[in-house]
């Protein structure tokens, strides 16, 4: 087998060359779908399954698919179990200093506060998270441009945060890892 055949075989086994997989198989065959933005990750799923966006959103709710910030600021769509595997495997890694934007103490303080709030309420949208952090920290209004994403990175790396994939990338919906099943149960009522 030459390199091209080996590459094609690997792509085929990962489901990248088939459009006949069902949604569940597509998510179980690989550990997440990664892209620079969520739409690209969803297109990857659609290429493998041929499913409509409406059906994909329904699948998110039914199966508890979560969205996560991976390192290097990429979006990943994952099953909750796959996210736990990734977080566990990366426990010894350290986030690069550049992620902290020169204000590491503030990032860690905001992450601690956001985690405390999430443990209390279970789910937060971006506006509620911003409001709470502004009320808690006087310096928050003058934070660096990508500060909020650094906070999300810290919490994701610790396995303390997931995002619902049905929310937009600008108005994210943050949940604790155990909340996805709770939200799923409420939607089924």
From TrEMBL:
Superkingdom per UniProt: Bacteria
Entries under Pfam families matching the protein: AlkZ-like (PF06224)
Protein name: Uncharacterized protein
InterPro entries cross-referenced by the UniProt entry: AlkZ-like
């Amino acid at each position: 087998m030459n390199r091209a055949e080996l590459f094609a075989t690997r792509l085929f086994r990962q489901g990248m060359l088939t459009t006949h997989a069902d949604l569940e198989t597509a998510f179980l065959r690989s550990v997440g779908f990664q892209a620079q933005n969520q739409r690209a990750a969803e297109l990857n799923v659609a290429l493998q399954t041929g499913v409509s966006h409406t059906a994909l959103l329904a699948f998110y709710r039914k199966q508890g698919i979560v969205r996560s910030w991976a390192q290097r600021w990429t979006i990943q769509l994952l099953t909750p179990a796959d996210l736990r595997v990734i977080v566990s495997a990366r426990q010894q890694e350290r986030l690069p200093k550049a992620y902290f934007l020169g204000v590491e103490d503030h990032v860690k303080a905001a992450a601690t506060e956001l985690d405390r709030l999430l443990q209390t309420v279970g789910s937060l949208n971006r506006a509620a998270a911003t409001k709470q952090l502004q009320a808690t920290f006087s310096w928050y209004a003058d934070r660096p441009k990508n500060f909020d994403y650094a906070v999300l990175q810290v919490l994701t790396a610790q396995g303390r945060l997931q995002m619902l994939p049905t929310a937009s990338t600008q108005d994210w919906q943050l949940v604790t890892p155990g909340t996805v099943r709770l939200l799923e149960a409420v939607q089924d009522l």
